[in-house]
Amino acid sequence: MTGASRLPLMWLAQRIGMMLLTLLAIITLTFALMHAVPGGPFVSEKMLAPEIEAALNAKFGLDQPIWRQYLNYLGGVLTFDLGPSFKYPGVSVNSMIADGLAVTAQTGLLAMICVVAVGVPAGIVAALNRGRWPDTLAMFLASLGIAVPSYVIATVALYIFALRLGWTPAFGLDDWRGYILPVVALSGFWMSFVARLTRSNLLETMSQDYIMTARAKGLPARTVMLRHGLRNSLIPVVTVLGPVVANLLTGSFVIEQIFALPGIGRHFVQSITNRDYTAIMGITIFYAVFLMLMILIVDLLYLWLDPRISYGDRK
Amino acid sequence: MTAPLLSLRDLRTEYRTDRGVVQAVRGVELTLHRGEILGLVGESGSGKSVTCMSLLKLLKRGGHITSGTADFDGVDLLSLSDRALTRVRGDRIGVIFQDPMSALNPTMTVGRQIVEVLMQHRRIGKNAARARAVELFKLVRIPSPETRIDNYPHEFSGGMRQRVMIAIALACEPDILIADEPTTALDVTIQRQILALLKELRDRLGMAIILVTHDLGVIAETADRVMVLYGGQVMEEAPVADLFAAPQHPYTRGLLAAIPDPRLAGRPLSPVRGSPPDMRSPPPGCPFAPRCPRAMRICATPPPMYDGTESARLRPTQRSRCWLADTNAPAPTPEPAE
């Protein structure tokens, strides 16, 4: 493998530079939009005494001009300090993300494993048995997984397995069985999506000329498919897996709500209704960085998967 | 003459498609001798490629062989299971395809693509296989084989890729090399080099070659014997010199007349008029009759395959599937003045 020598350091440096610029744009835009929305962290139905509100605004720097607040915030981001939560006294956004992520990453990682470990093999089995019952079954389930929204799967599964059968707890992650339903609900869509994608790409690859060459060499059918078909058909699958990782690991608000999981997705939505400025900013930044990193990793994986790809001679 | 290396009888292959059953090959007979280059020529859809690929059951989806025997060294290839055929493919019969751009796996080094065929058929270690791959690269004259072996297909030109394909097909020293339009995707100068290489390798290694092409120029340059296919049937068969000197079948004549002649530059070309039959419902008689300038009423019934022993009009080594070869046929009319 000549992968290491093809690793383009110049390209990587440029890429990281672009990522930082993108991040700056995201921060600026989110900051502007957030302040354009009426209300603020300390405006609520229960009116605070004006002097208390003023004191709070002063404490969190909200009395300063907006550009000042913006620069202060950027300064914090540069030192990896996302600031204190406006809504939960004494809680920093950093620790809020860390706590939320601890929960979300567990279910997210398990869901990710399901997507890869079930979705890809299901697609392969379906392609190997094209038109026969394993294919029909797998594609029926996959169509269901794509068509039925995750919250419907979650609610129905919760009703059947937790409420009626009592096999799994209805909420929380205190016991391993608690993971089953959230992970299934989280991974259902992407698992189905990946299974379909794997199947169609593998079939597409298997109609290529070099597959005929491999057969003409006298390789057994299985070797032809696994050695020559699979690798070439996985490139598009890897492409979607990057954003999927970001998506699953940063959590789903709906699923976390249904299973009462204190994950990061829930924090995000709550922070918006609360106008918890620093929390909104912090979680947005976190999600953006994570997504960009995943896409970068996918682009690097291409180098390994497809020797025709090179980033070196790009102008 | 010694017993043939390959003897194909009454091959029929059809493709089941959404729009009906395509009768791609309808009773092709083929004999191949050791060390011989047999050219199969015909236009697209004539059944020439399908005939070859049927020998190894390398058919695209929907393809089925409905009858026939292919005696290869005492074994009927057409009755072998897919598993048994894997021991023939790539070992005793090698194949090279039309488009060297797409026939090599883009994500595997060419070295690995040769090594895998060697390791599949020979009890041979990785290092020995690699050494043999370098040797094969030398044989097909790829420059600096020791380093090129670790390159990927996209790092080669079209002609060089076709050389790689030839090296793969010849790795196990097959008795037969099937070359399916090996030069069609290449430019003319490279085409000549590849054909010369094939001929030279035949002389050195002694394998027989079935050369599929639509290009009579390639046939003239390379083949020893020619079979002209049309509508899934053999129309004419003859040693290459005889075919060009005295074509018997009107279709062969049409093909030869269609070759542009530089001495007649400026004059309109004379194509074979009409279009090939719909192979979902081929005409009941001679498939060429609807386009044949010399068609007779009897052409609506299938003509037999005449050979030189049956028809005084044919040379001893020539065969023609045309009623005109029948001894009762009207005297040959003079060649059209074009």
Automatic annotation (TrEMBL), chain B:
Compartment(s) where it occurs, according to its Swiss-Prot or TrEMBL record: Cell inner membrane
* Residues annotated as domain ABC transporter: 6-256
Which GO cellular component term is one of those annotated?
A: plasma membrane
Please give the name of this protein: Peptide ABC transporter ATP-binding protein
Q: Which GO terms describe its molecular function?
A: ATP binding; ATP hydrolysis activity
Query: Could you confirm whether the keyword Glycoprotein appears in this record?
Result: no
- Keyword tags: ATP-binding, Cell membrane, Membrane, Nucleotide-binding, Transport
- Region (Disordered) residue ranges read 304-338
Phylogenetic placement of the source organism: Bacteria, Pseudomonadati, Pseudomonadota, Alphaproteobacteria, Rhodobacterales
InterPro entries to which the protein is assigned, alphabetical: AAA+_ATPase, ABC_Ni/Peptide_Import, ABC_transporter-like_ATP-bd, ABC_transporter-like_CS, Oligopep_ABC_C, P-loop_NTPase
Q: Which family does it belong to?
A: Belongs to the ABC transporter superfamily.
Give membrane topology per the record: Peripheral membrane protein
Q: What is its main location?
A: membrane
Which biological processes are named by the entry's GO terms? Answer: peptide transport; transmembrane transport
